[in-house]
Amino acid sequence: xxxxxxxxxxxxxxxxxxxxxxxxxxxxxxxxxxxxxxxxxxxxxxxxxxxxxxxxxxxxxxxxxxxxxxxxxxxxxxxxxxxxxxxxxxxxxxxxxxxxxxxxxxxxxxxxxxxxxxxxxxxxxxxxxxxxxxxxxxxxxxxxxxxxxxxxxxxxxxxxxxxxxxxxxxxxxxxxxxxxxxxxxxxxxxxxxxxxxxxxxxxxxxxxxxxxxxxxxxxxxxxxxxxxxxxxxxxxxx
Length: 238
What we know:
Helix content is 33%, strand content 26%. It has helices spanning 2-5, 21-28, 38-41, 43-59, 63-69, 84-93, 106-114, 164-178, 200-203; strands at 72-78, 118-127, 130-142, 147-155, 183-188, 207-211, 217-222, 233-237. The termini are far apart.
């Protein structure tokens, strides 16, 4: 019936015996990934690390002690062709912690790399339990009046609550200053899935400039008065 009424929908042919279902689905190739990155291959180890992190957090008597005991290191790099596949993958699949949910192709990312008035940052978080992989992507663009517009800010939800957000803002401010920016402009474009970051910029010290009827907003941070946050994360350039 589905095949008849919706010809655009692929329908697998399965036998009456349910033991043949997996073979039919696998042979049809419906759920094969278009690409596999190093982070995809390391997913099991990351899940095991997350269990160890949760156990440490449960045993800690205070948040400060937990964060210090994590021995975190944030490794940042500019966009490059080595990480291109993973960068594009994250940009196009991240929905929850994604301020604008703006999608970019490989060509778009390469254009950012070539633009002297823009920057792209890929951030990897390591700790005592292992490598969390690339957990954040930032795209900033210098505009008129020396405003640095944060085109894209997305993060993996599995690193929330570890001071990654303010540490990332420190890096954005540094990159913006190198371009001669005076202010940071952060935009929140609401979707059905990213409500968790509605107040993200306000929590980081931005001042709301305007809001939209749909719940979106633009916020500003004056770099002349910005004081980098002190965190328990050691930042290094990769």
